[in-house]
Amino acid sequence: MKTLIATTNPAKLAEIKSFLSDLPLELVSLKDVGINQDVEETGKTFEENAIIKGKFFCKLSGLPTIADDGGIEIDALNGEPGVYSRRWAGEENTLTHDTDSDERLINYTLKRMQGIPSEKRGAQMRVVEALVLPTGEVFTGEGIIRGVISEKPSEQRYLGFPFRSLFFIPELNKFYNHDSLTKEENERYNHRKKALDKIKNIII
User: Are 1 and 172 in contact (CB under 8 A)?
Assistant: First the structure.
């Protein structure tokens, strides 16, 4: 069954494909089906935005569509940036996925966290995956992982996932970077995998 993964973020695309690789699906990207339109994310929650994107691209493609929305929520900043994670550093930092925009987000986050003690640097990564079917049915799954904002970023960068260079998991003593975690750790801790697992049985 051909299924569209509706994201322009290459890191998200690769991660979703890897976590669905055990399903009998032909996973295609927006580029694969010739879609270059975008949709405005007007929702106030991750779930609303994921559904907005899923419905838009499902209608365009006529395919079952998986779309997601997620970001980081920092305790000391009352949950910021939340749904504005990619746009947090200012309007000039649009929803592009390149090294410069990633670095702006990393540096801006460190600036906002200056002076906040280690015991108050808690945060969580949250994502909602939406599966939208051509019939109009919508299914969602949410995944969360807790950690802290490091005072210094990891030297590793993972294009498209800037906050993972700041998000540290104390119980693993590692940054939440795909390349730093073992396969077993990714299976257990990845918040996107947790969300996808909740809708896997519907996809097939």
Answer: no
From the candidates 22, 69, 100, 197, give the one annotated as an active-site residue.
69
Question: CB burial class (10 A; 0-12, 13-18, 19+) of residue 192?
Answer: buried
Domain range annotation of the chain: 2-203
DSSP code for 112? H
CA 3 – CA 1 distance, rounded (Å): 6
* CATH code for the domain defined by 2-203: 3.90.950.10
* pLDDT tens sequence across 27-83: 999 999 999 999 999 999 999 999 999 999 999 999 999 999 999 999 999 999 999
pTM strictly above 0.70: yes
Burial 56-83 (b: 16+ CB within 10 A, else e): bbbebbebbbbbbbbbbbbbbbeebbbb
| Helix extents (H) in 20-163 | 46-61, 99-112
Nearest to 128 by CA among 82, 89, 174: 82
Per DSSP, what are the bridge partners of residue 142?
128
Assess whether 69 carries a catalytic annotation.
Answer: yes
